[in-house]
Structure formats: structure tokens, C-alpha cells
Design brief:
Strand order of the largest sheet: 1-2-3-4-5-6-7-8
Shape: elongated
Number of strands: 14
Largest sheet: 8 strands, mixed
Structural class: mainly beta
Number of helices: 0
Strand content: over 45%
Helix content: under 10%
Distance between the termini: 73 Å
Order of helices and strands: EEEEEEEEEEEEEE
């Protein structure tokens, strides 16, 4: 059996989730007062006790693992030692050990990667990994400018390398 309760606790209302198997509150959505006119939401989950896991602050920024998100989405696993991210960062990944951004997709799919766009188009620049041929390619102004092949050859200005470093173009 699952139960649902509502209450006002401290500075704001909350919705609690209960499960008779545990006999205790197993989750909570709670309003968080940031200042007089700024109210956020916090999501709590139960492991060995209730703890806050996600916060949406009054500005709409989402923090996972942090109560003070420093970007539109801030995923926190440990203190990096950097107090403030770059001002235009929408996504902040923070940890006290080396941090990675990982893309997982089937090897039968053509490419995965990072795309940059602007008012001229959605893929003006990119760094893509081609799963079917196992190479990485780099584009600027919407055109491939270089690649690293499956053999480790670096190619600039062409897609068919003849050498370990193959450059075609004029200075």
C-alpha cells in the first residue's frame, strides 16, 4: 500500500510519499524559500533516510546533488575547487575527481557527438564519432575540416588519408 500526505512544515508546504512496507516516508516534494519572493522546489528520496536529491530554484535552474545550482543544469558529485563556472555555462558537471561526459549509443548508428549551432544553422560546428567506421570528424562552417581515422591517422582537408599526417590545402 502506498500513501500520500500533504502538510505545511517550516517555511512551506510539502507532499510526502509513504509505503507501508517501510512504515515511513520514502519521498517528498517540498517548497524551498530562497528569499521573500523566491520559492523553489526540492525533491527528497529515501535511502537510509530522507535526503534532498534535486532542487529547482526560483530562477528555474536544476541542481542534482546540490542545493545551489550554478547553471540551467548543475550535476554535482563533489567539490571541484572552482567557485564559479563560466558565466554562459548552461550545463555544469562538477566533481572532485576527473569528470567525463559520456555518450552511449549502438555501434550500428552512424555518429554521436557534440553539435554547435547559431542563426545560420543547427550544425555549424561539430565533433562527431562515427561508430560504423570508427573515426572522429571535426566540422566548422558546416563542412568537415578534419578527422582522426581508426588507424590513428590525422587528416586535414581530405577524407582519404595516404599518410599518418595528411594535409591538403594552401597556407
Amino acid at each position: 500500500f502506498a500513501g500520500l500526505t500533504t502538510a505545511t512544515v517550516g517555511s512551506g508546504p510539502r507532499v510526502g510519499f509513504y509505503n507501508d512496507d517501510f512504515g515511513t516516508e520514502i519521498g517528498r516534494v517540498y517548497s524551498t524559500t530562497e528569499s521573500a519572493n523566491n520559492i523553489g522546489l526540492s525533491l527528497y528520496t529515501y535511502n537510509t533516510g530522507l535526503s534532498e536529491k534535486v532542487r529547482i530554484n526560483a530562477a528555474g535552474n536544476v541542481g542534482i546533488g546540490t542545493t545551489s545550482p550554478l547553471g540551467a543544469l548543475h550535476i554535482y558529485k563533489g567539490a571541484s575547487g572552482q567557485a564559479t563556472p563560466y558565466a554562459s555555462s548552461g550545463l555544469v558537471l562538477e566533481d572532485n575527481v576527473p569528470t567525463y561526459l559520456e555518450f552511449l549509443s549502438p555501434s550500428t548508428q552512424a555518429a554521436s557527438g557534440v553539435l554547435w549551432g547559431d542563426e545560420a544553422g543547427t550544425t555549424i560546428g561539430s565533433v562527431l564519432y562515427d561508430h560504423t567506421s570508427n573515426y572522429m570528424r571535426f566540422t566548422t562552417a558546416g563542412t568537415e575540416k578534419g578527422r582522426i581515422t581508426t588507424d590513428g591517422n590525422v587528416v586535414i582537408g581530405t577524407t582519404g588519408p595516404s599518410y599518418t599526417l595528411h594535409v591538403i590545402g594552401s597556407a
